[in-house]
Amino acid sequence: MIKRPLSDKYFRWTIAVTAYVFLLLYGGMLIQWFGLGAISSWADSAVHILLLAAAVAMIAHNLGYYRPAKGKYLFLLSYSTVLTAIWLALSTWALKHMFHDQAEYLQWLKSAVPVHFLIAWIVITSMGLRSMLVYDMAEQQEALERREAAERMSREAELYKLRQQLQPHFLFNSLNSINALIVLQPQRAREMVLKLSDFLRGTLKREDQQWIPLPEELQYLQWYLDIEKVRFGHRLSTEVIADENAAKLVMPPMLLQPVVENAIKYGLYDTTEAITITIKAWVQQNMLYVQVQNPYDSALQQPHRGTGFGLSSIRRRLYLLFARQDLLEISCDELIFTTLIKVPQPHDKSNHN
Amino acid sequence: MIKAIIIDDEPLARAVVMEYLLDFPQVQVMQECNDGFEGLKAIQQHQPDIIFLDVQMPKINGFEMLELVEDMPAVIFTTAFEEHAIRAFEVNAIDYLLKPFSKDRFEKALNKWLGSRNAAPETAPQQTTQLLETAAASPLQSHRIVVKINGKIKIIPVQDVHYLEAADDYVKIVTQEGAFLKNKTMSFFEQTLDPQQFARVHRSYMLNVNQVTRIEPYEKENHLAILRTGAKVPVSKTGYPKLKAALGL
User: Fold this and answer.
1) Residues of chain A neighbouring B16 (CB-CB closer than 8 A)
2) Chain A window 132-151: which residues touch B at a Cβ cutoff of 8 Å?
3) Best exposed site among A82, A209, A258, B9 by fewest CB in 10 Å?
């Protein structure tokens, strides 16, 4: 809602003080230069100035409620002209009433009508113009803020959605493995339940966090990979190497998850061989680099796999977070598929949570 | 004795089926397979009565594998993918078990088949074929076509396909590497392939719109589509609007 000037204390005071100052100046002027009597001078000044102050307050206030979209300047001019006419009629009528027996004053009042009109018209129109500009600017500002808020909300919603991509199939297949292990190897079934719980708790807990330390994210991936190891037995081995100085760096949660999921999907689900997935993390130019490598069979893969949903959503997320398109790099040779993610570090490291 | 084969890429998933089958001594598991290729070979070799089949597997998925099976056994799907299950139940497949499934649920599925087998032994495979025609419309397999040549399996990415031509009981798939035959109907491909990319331009032809270089009028109300390779594909009166729509004209 746009603030009306009359609800603003400073504006009210400004009008009151200005009116008072002008009342004194105008009254003094009438006595000094026009040689009117003291009583009629002060009365004339008071009536004119107070009514003018009321008219000015009125136009400033009313323009806040109504400004036509088309021809607003024409509207303003008509409005201020009508208001000036009313002001003049009222003040003249009041003064005539008060001093109906002073012919000399009445003569002066009559001859001053055009000057009064002109000056009052200029004052009221200026106030109207000024108010209109202020209201327009406030309205634009408000629209801008609204649009920004809407954009921020949609960005947050999109980020939330992008993070929420835990594969339900993964969950059901893991439960199926547990179902098998309960009879075959109860101890391992328990291990798997615990790992799955840790993993799921991690998913839930980290949803609100903007940044998490790299070791935490790697731990989380380790649980995920451990579960996949149980599902696929000795076919999957993993190698996680993080530089010591990378341990202090942070990254958005759940960013690596879909990359590793992709590596598993194309490296493991699509082959019957034993495979190794390698995750490496290091620091370079004050950025965190994380590289995920998985073997793949180029003969079986689709050429469009690089734009698969998993990776395009990561690119989108990186763009929403950092407004950069160059943070995800994909490369592949005949046998190895490599995904490289660069994470710029936040300047203020105190707001990790 | 009933011969069975389990096809699943997860050892533990196969172990569950094996465990549940202990109560069915008449069912003998001939082989456990890791993927569709192995499954296909095992089916040819053992001629099983029933297979337990996962959908998501390396190389080719369960549905693609079944397309290549000549002597169709009864099929019970075991998968975590619910989206295909709904279709399966619509066409009354033998069963579709959602992982993880209970022993009761498994026995119910198997008993249902054992019962119907005694009553009418031929119904089950037919149901599976029917299931395949519907389930094939899933996005899982729309981007590639699996064919068998000389006992070997070939996977053709759909963008490599120039056009399809009906040939009796088969469909001829014409690619850069040559033509392949697949025992399917044109309407199967019409349902499976992306309509943005493939247009059924004629009763006997479907073409990849990305391969079209120009269209010429031919005889009174027909047209000919000229492909990049120079091949000419007839376009019928009813096919012409479809081609124009696919080309965005």
Assistant:
1) 176, 179-180
2) none
3) A82
